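TEACHING EXERCISE
Course module: macromolecular assemblies
Task: Read the component lines below, then compare them to the predicted structure of the full complex.
Student: A.B.
Group: 4
Components provided:
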Amino acid sequence: MKSEPGINLTDTIVTPIELGKIQRELFTLDEFLTQSGVKSARTSMPLPSPMLQSLITSSKLEMLKSDERTQLVNQLKFVRRTAPVVHITFASTPSKRALRALVKWFRDNIHPNALIEPGVQASIAGGCLVRTSTKTFDFSIQKILSETKPNLIKAL
Amino acid sequence: MVGQNVELILLFVIIGCIFSALIAFIWVALRLGPKCRANHGGGGGNGDIFTDEYRQHLVEKGTARFERTLDQNAAFLQQDLHTISDEVTEYIKDKAGEILKEEFSDQKQAITAAQQHMAEAFSRIDKTMADYQKNLTDQFAHELAEEKQRRIEHFNANMADVITHHVQYSLATHLEVTDQVKYILSHLDENKQAIIEDMKREV
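Instructor-supplied answer key:
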């Protein structure tokens, strides 16, 4: 599976919310830079976040050029529309590092711009639940405990 | 009955004696009365043997004898009456005793039969109660065993749930997702093909 050529999300952009945030930032920056020649425009330039900076760096585009900014905006819109989203439920709030490791696997094996929608469900105890559009893959410890319950009863 | 007959006969005999004595006295009086008057002629005339005084003496003597006889007969009658009353009393006593004995005997038999019947009834009741008690005991033991088994199974199931819940809570609380990444990635690798096919359909 391939996206529009030239844009691959960085590891720092994991969730659809972060992608949306990047898009809003980019839009604000684009607006500022477009209006920078107008006298009534505000004087201070909005600082891009580390996520946007890393995206700009990896895309090798010149943000000062209007058409390249537009291209990046359109590419992000395309990604937003076409990138597959995987819902992963954890037992506790996952760290950024863990999410990056997982999204890297999905981007290396499934789709280069796959996104993860994390959730929390303490009852699964550990591991995760991976939900795609039609299937759910249960890698949780709750499942293992349920499967071994008869042994526990027997041991009791 | 016999006593009454004896009494009657005795009474008739006594009355007969008195009557015969009376007849004899009257006969003697009639026989001697005109002769004596004739001999004494207003003093023994007309061939009378006894004088008026002698006749008076005989009358008095006869009267005394009659009275003595009457007294004797009355005494005999009284004695006989006492004897008869004693005999009747004894007869009634004996008869009443016999009748009472018979009645008591019948009552005793009835009581004995009733006692026996009650004893049999009690024995049947005892047996029925013993059987019922045995059935209850068996049923109770059976239900106790079942309840015990049910509670053990319930305990085992609940205990397993408690342990599972405790493990889940402990793992969720203390296990970091970062530490589980390798475990998750290994499972993702195992199911890679299925995930790819599903996400292809979605895309």
